[in-house]
Model the fold of this input.
Amino acid sequence: MTTSQAPLIPAPGDSRRRPLVVMRNVSKMFSSGTLALSDMSLTVEPGEFVSLLGPSGCGKSTALRIIAGLGDVSTGTIDWPSSRINSKGLPEGDISFVFQEPTLMPWQTVFGNVYLPLKLRGVSKSAARDEIMKTLATVGLQDFAGAYPRELSGGMKMRVSIARALVTRPKLLLMDEPFAALDEITRQKLNDDVLRLWRETGITVIFVTHSVFESAYLSNRIVVMKARPGRVHADFPLVTSMSRDAHYRTSEEYRQACEKVSNMLLEAIGGEEH
Amino acid sequence: MVPASLENSPPLAPSKPGFFGRNRDRLLRTLIPVGVVISLILLWQAIITVNGIPQYILPGPLAVANSLYNDWGTLWPALWVTTQITMQALALALIGGVGIAIFLVQSKWIETAFYPITVILQVTPIVAIAPLILIYAPTTQVALLICAFLVAFFPILSNMVQGLKSVDHNLLNLFDLYGASRWQMLLYLKLPSSLPYFMTGLRIGGGLALIAAVVAEFAAGSAGAGSGLAFRLLESQYRLNIPRLFAALILLSVLGVVIFMITSFIAWISLHRWHESSLKREN
Done:
């Protein structure tokens, strides 16, 4: 997977390295009159793992959906400096989305669900088979290709959803609180899986969460957002000297990271006008 | 999942529930209704025999069976005609119902414009339109077909519209995200997603097509060769051939049950692997 993916992802230090996505002064007003996002700017570089963290209603999911092209901006622009743009202004095949729910088609097997993005591009099933099985193997589901979603646990369904997002080898993976509904043990396991995939593939991730612990564990950059209207409160890198694994979870460094992120979040909530 | 070979093998230990124990439920579920029907038939025959009721008032089951056997030459072609009309009407209703449902959900304006017309067609009692249809249709058979079609068509249409509009919004977003065309969205998402609704429509439509075929034939009052079971019912009534009337009635019931079984089976085949309605609860 790593070797075959290499040409698609610019290596760190690549001279052609340009930002992947640039949001400039984006605002979003819903038809109900609610200002969901106000003047949000965000530049994401290739290979980053960015968490959008904030209280509910701070517009983090809205921001993610706007980046994905699911909904228009009211004002502002979104640019994709390193992608080919299609007629809808979206980077052709460069983004994938993982929803809060697994969002699988219940009438399709695991294989059929992961095949979907390729099927929509007109790739034949036989041509896609190898890629699908390889992607399923990366999430540990190679033995479940023929299973139906109802036969899987919540965590396994989420893995299928991640495999479906990865099968097109996107540059950018958008994840909207993907593990919020899972139990703690499964969530930790999937966090480790996502980190491993991020390291192995060099993919860029924007991860929406309301969990301080999750964001501090996963990301190398955290964007803390504020509600009413949704806007960026703080944007800072999170560098650790340790590799992020079970050992890191119990380390002093992780505790400090959590404290820092937590304080930022408290600031953001405290600054809200009620 | 227990492999089939294990399921059918004899029990290994006497302490475990034996073959009869495990299958008792299923066995009883078949035996009890069959037993009830047989008892009722016996009771029916007993009442006839004990009270000496004449055949032209109420025939016994033996007389009905006799008529079924002797009049088979008359009843069979009539059954075949009714079956054909019902099936053709159902097929047309399926094509029309699904087709128009797809057309209606293309845009809000199309739905706003055309849905009321389909409702008017549905709520108008079919017997009331039948005379008109009989005037305009080239043959009686075509008129019957139109009547049965109109009745069977609406449940399929309304279920299908509901199904096409009930697609998971996240899945719609997902298809949008991957740049799916309208056609792909319909073929890979909306149609499979509305399959359970379609199956409900099919089961209701199948039953209604038969009812409408019979009612329309009553209204048409067609006679002679090429007439269906409904005409044979009326004819038997006029001739006070009550055993044959019962025989025709039984054939209609059997036809209804067969249609129900076929549509239920189709629904089961297409849904049992994934849809909640066809799954056994495992707790």
User: Anything to note?
Assistant: Residues 19-51 of chain B form the longest helix (33 residues).
